[in-house]
Amino acid sequence: MNNIRRMLDRGLEIVGGTLLAMMVVVVCWQVISRYVMGAPSIWTEELLRFSLVWLSMLGMAYVCGKQEHISLTLLLNKAPEHLRAWWMLVLQLTFALFSLYILIIGGLKISGISMLQVSPVLQIPMGQVYYALPVSGLLIIVYSILNITATVKSLRSAPQTTTPSLEENHD
Prior knowledge:
The protein is built from 6 helices and no strands. The chain is mainly alpha-helical. The protein is elongated. The chain has helices at residues 2-36, 44-66, 81-114, 126-130, 132-157, 166-169. The chain starts with a helix and ends with a helix. Helix 1 (2-36) packs antiparallel against helix 2 (44-66) and helix 3 (81-114) packs antiparallel against helix 5 (132-157).
């Protein structure tokens, strides 16, 4: 399981880093073409917008895999360890269900509907831009499964505190 997580993490780091570096180069070209050459590039804004969609969706999957997403932990930090583990299970199941219904099913529907719509400048089907939703949803489900198995393993390996029965206390 750790090998799968490492491969996913590394793949998303490479894709995200490459996408971010490409976006920086495109922004620099946009500034140079507009202010130095006096002829703004028409394709850069659209490419950056679509790249940001993909970067944010892949970043969401990466953060969910690292379990570094935004969460309110005020009460959770004061809870006993076994309750925290159970809460993590509930949270990961919620992520998986959200990813299945909203990102994958909804993303595939919107991608299919938008496939005939073409972007004005780059002339690519908008459905390809929206494929970021089901791809990130699939990655989040894989990460949720990995996180659930790690949490279950930690629950099983945690020392069980048993309370003495009344018969044991009676001398």
